[in-house]
Amino acid sequence: MNQAILFPDREGWDDAQQCICFPALVNGFQVNCALSAESLAHRFGGDAPLQWLESFRQHRWDLEDEAEQAIRDQQEDSQGWVWLS
């Protein structure tokens, strides 16, 4: 599959869903990607959104690679979101 997948620098904390959300543009269409607070704490430690955002930014390239593979593998949930675990 030849998809163009881009990740703009627009990550943010979603308090309602308790996750960091970040968009991916797949052939011009937006796909929402996310990492839950539980997953963030497991991966990076910390206990607060600001710490997790900083960790996300430090590990952006690896997380985007992981999200890209999940998108290519069509691992969206029923709402069209890609959740990294």
Automatic annotation (TrEMBL):
InterPro entries the record matches: DUF1488 (IPR009962), Shew3726-like_sf (IPR036692)
Q: State the species of origin.
A: Scandinavium lactucae
Please indicate which superkingdom the organism of origin belongs to. Bacteria
Protein name according to UniProt: DUF1488 domain-containing protein
Q: Which Pfam families does the entry mention?
A: DUF1488
